[in-house]
Amino acid sequence: MKLKHFSLAVAGIAAAAISLSAVAQKKYDTGATDTEIKIGDTKPYSGPASAYGTIGKAIAAYFDKINAEGGINGRKVKYISLDDGYNPAKTVEQVRKLVEEDEVLFVFNPLGTPSNTAIHKYMNQKKVPQLFVATGATKWGDPKNFPWTMGWQPNYQTEGRIYAAHILETNPNAKIGVLYQNDDYGKDYLKGLEDGLGDKAKTMIVSKVSYEVTDPTVDSQMVTLKGSGADTFFNVTTPKFAAQAIKKAAEIGWKPTQYLNNVSSSVGSVLTPAGLENSVGIITTQYGKDPTDPQWNNDKGMQDWRAWMAKYYPSGDVKDASNVYGYSVAMTVVQVLKQCGDNLTRENVMKQAASLSMDLPLSLPGINVKTSANDFYPIEREQLARFDGKTWKLFGKVYNPSGD
Amino acid sequence: MDAFLHQIFSGLANGCIYGSIALALVMIYQATHHLNFAQGEMATFSTFIAWALIQKGLPYWVAFSVTFGISFAAGLVIQRVILRPVEKAPVLTNVNVFIGLLLIFNACSGWFFDHTVKAFPSPFAQEGLLKTQFFSAHEFGSFLVMLTVLLALYAFFRFTPIGLAMRAAAQNPESARLVGIRVSWMLAVGWGLAAAIGAVAGMMVAPVVFLDPNMMSGILLYGFAAALLGGVDNPWGAVIGGLIVGVLENLLGAYVIGTELKLTVALVLIVGTLTLMPAGLFGKHVVTRV
Amino acid sequence: MSAAPDPSSADRKSRLLWIGLVVVLVAAMVLPFLVKNYRVFQFNLVLVYAIAILGLNILTGFNGQISLGHGAFYAIGAYAAAVLMDRFGMPYWATLPFSGLLCFVLGFLMGFPALRLAGHYLAVATLALALAIPQLLKYKHLENYTGGVQGIVLVKPDPPFTFRFLDQPLNADRWLYFFTLAVTVVMFLLAWNLLRGRVGRALIAIRDHPIAAAVMGINLPAFKSLTFGVSAAFTGVAGALGAVVIAFVSPDSFLLPLSIFLLVGVVVGGLASIPGAFFGAIFIQFVPNIADEMSKSAPQAIYGVLLIILMYLLPTGVMGMVRKLWARWQPGAARLRVNARPGTSVPVSPDLTKESTT
Q: CA angle, A135 as apex, A132 and A139 as ends, to 5°?
């Protein structure tokens, strides 16, 4: 009889415990409910960087697809994207609106290094995730000091170091000329190259010339570089200027070994206007599939992407690599949210973001997305590729800076 | 020496770019006494229209002429519809309207034609007798085109009755009206011409700098500097001003101060020159009767 | 035949004006406790832009010297404050006079070439300034101070004390709001004092009839250069405040669009009007947000359309319309007053060679 009471009691306590923990499983912070997850971001829809506004529209289109297919764990994504015109002062204002008025769960993929620098402290003070920032600057992977901020794409300095390693391997006596945009993006790449070359940087880099985005052409800089006697060219320019530089080099009869930064490696947007025959031999690093590269025409991931563009973002440009970027980064955040399950607290969002191990269909084979509590760089692997006149041919090994 | 000559010629080529936009600015100034901030964006939009026509299959010179016509008509319409209501308003109100137009055209270029960089064809054969080591066939060709436009403008203003009427309407609207000139329409024609010249400038520039919605942002600023350096009421001054700015910028960047400060130094020099010659190098000095 | 304005009605009017101002001030002080923090932040920005626009208005509206480069003074003021706070540990409130003084000197120096340049030439010279300053801020040899392309991250000041009012605490945002409000009141009083007396009339005389002004004994070069300096000082103080409020400066925060939008604000508010600066600031702060809500594809185009429509409806700015309505309400005597505003005055003689008012 005592045993019966005892086992009843145990059963009762167990049942209570199970039901309590079942109720305790659903945890929400502001911005998440049973039916909805609110995510916010800022993008430059106006102003000098408005070309990147399409990333915001691609992300919105991807969430449309997810919502049409039932949402994430039964919850629809509500995506609020605000224009900051690439002005850091405006970014601060818009992000504060997202956090304090729209009460989003987290801020996702804000674009621009100065814009993200402006909100870096605020996000960490408020303990709101600043997730998968859209910039390649190196400073976003610092979990010790800024546990609420995480980057996404391979950072520029790593890429610069890869080129340096390749130059030292293949042409240790190279004379390098660098053309770089005079802002954080350009200088970050340059630093990567110089760090990668180490002591030899001073002797190997014979000419460093910069340009401003307000410059109409980079012709003068190219003439200077040719005149410096450089036989290797590190081209750190955004697409329009990259096309100009490649074309001008051909026109003035300068044929260096050219390393082109990944930002401007699109076949359709850069190499075609520059002249495919002028681009033969250019080396870059890649981590994603270029939508204008014919070698991916029959690739399943690419075909799925094209179908998605046609259905959910028909006004978008299928030649624009930014639309691949938006698709892939949105896919990553959806995976994070799926992993969160019913625990949609900000802390858990960061925890899941720091426990990623996935492959993206539009990443190159061998390039994964992996994070951990000490590793806030989701995509780090890159591979060198050489342009053969039609397409980028990957070669060599997959570089893996942190060993995962 | 080779590199030096190269810098000079590349500077002259850039200078042609600045000069052609400066020409459009001076053209509008001569007709309306306003500097049109939206000139660059209107030129970009016209170039996009030309690009779209060429994509549809039209041969180059047909697309060129059609775009020229469309731009002229559009400039006319803009003056009649958008600018006439503020004609009598203070100058800065007009400036605000120009700024509004600038924003609208820039945004619409991106919206209708998207932001990917586009190649724009050049009508001048790449290989051929026009090409030399220092500048390409296109650069030489566009220089010739600009010269032609300049001469045509000069002849138009000097020798045709409409040109005379336009000059009168700009200089002295009251008296012009008394002689029977329809001043409002002269302003509209002025705008149409400026828009058309801007379109030509855009189509000459695009093969070199590639076509995207922000193609003209930097060029417009240099164009302003060039137009005022040469004297804002002098078309020849605009072209020469452009050439000077182009060469100056290149030489400064390559030999004097390096590329990180060349914009600053170039602008300082231009302002300095203007301080010494307040009406620009070739401008008219305005003497006020007390 | 000049009918003297009725003294008692003038008294009554100025009393009404003062009462109205006090009411507005009290409302402004209660406002931050009625709204959320980020709105307070936005109102902060409105006040900052109002001071900057007032500065530009002194130069362009009252004195007729067009400037497309006031963003440069705003940037210099902001960076001066940031460097003093970050590298030299100065408290935020002490940086304002330094920024103001530095910009006064630089503006005064800028006034010298400006003396020789008129109208569009001056516009281009100031445009050059607006373009050169961001490049200088990125210059590598100044990086130790300016932070180069990365900019400088600042610490937002904490309120020195706290209390609760209407159930909301005095937190950092609200404290900064009151600080900014105090500075705004001081700057506007300074401007009003400066412009209502002989100095103001001299500036307007120089704008409308420079030769007559010179003949009357006004020292044109001194006045014009000093005006440039004062105008730059105002905008510099605004920049310093902006740096404190936003807690971040970088070269990308101060590109050409800033100068253009300050000018837009001056015209929208009303040339040669002190209260107009608030309306201009409200426009440039909030209308981009409205445009953003209306369209993601081309928010800039919406902004441009709204700007043009506003220029049609209010060609002399908000205060220009307010003045027109106010004049219509007055009995006949007021209409005989000399109208000091540009665009509405009839030139005394049609001066054929004179440019229009810029």
A: 85
